[in-house]
Amino acid sequence: MKLELNPDLIIEAKQITDSYACVVIDDFLLNPHELLDYAKQRQDDFFKQERAYPGLILPLEANLLTAMQRFIRSEMSHIFGFLRGNIKLDANFAITTMMPDELSWIQRLCHTDPRTAPGRRNFASVLYLFDRPELGGTGFYRWKDIEFWQKMSASQVEDPDAGMDTLKDRFQLFRDPPCYITESNEAAELLDMAPARFNRLIFYPGDLPHSAFIRNPELLSPDPGKGRVTLNCFVSVIPR
Question: In Å, how far from its chain's centre is CA 221?
């Protein structure tokens, strides 16, 4: 299996804030069903990543990502203003599976991707490999008190439940039944949402708070043939 990119891509950059944009590309691959078949064949190899992704992941070997690396170097570097050299790329298949009552408090919020090293910037891409848009796209947010949430996030590195009493005292949303973040709430303001569509790729800065936009968690399934399957790429670059 390898990624075969559509040679006639139409690349649209949507401005989310003055500083951040999200690229949206439909019909990204020529062979999306081949990727989905690969995920189905390796269903038993998916595993849960502790305290991070709310579901199951399957890392992809670097040799399968040559076309994606080339695309990021040639197209995304131009749009987002980073150097074409020394791009580091990791990718995995992911299936969102966790029900709301299984989420840690931090998984009930949006998040940013931690930088891998000083002087570098992080970007992420999501390729939707399911044809049920009701399983949810990706939401983009603005923190209402970024310093508070940075401190709270640091406190739960060792214990995912650390700080829950403080949050319940301060925020109604943590006294309410748990759910995936979709609309604006006491913690963050919803800025925009990229709807899911089969074989649609989105590419955005990791510093932009984001989260899976899941309004119907009862539809989630660990079966790659039925569930919310994505190919997630995490990109570390050197800015110009």
Answer: 18
- Nearest residue to 232 (alpha-carbon basis) of 50, 22, 29, 92: 92
Q: Give pLDDT, residue 150.
A: 86
Nearest Cα residue to 92 out of 116, 135, 67, 56: 56
Rounded to whole angstroms, how far apart are CA atoms 188 and 156?
A: 19
Q: Considering the chain, what percentage of its residues have pLDDT values greater than 90?
A: 85
**Where do the domains of the chain lie, and which CATH numbers do they carry?**
11-143+178-237 (2.60.120.620)
Phi, psi for 19 (deg, rounded to 5): -105, -20
pTM listed for this prediction: 0.94
| Cβ atoms within 10 Å, residue 112 | 19
The tens digit of pLDDT for each residue in 131-145 reads 999 999 999 999 999
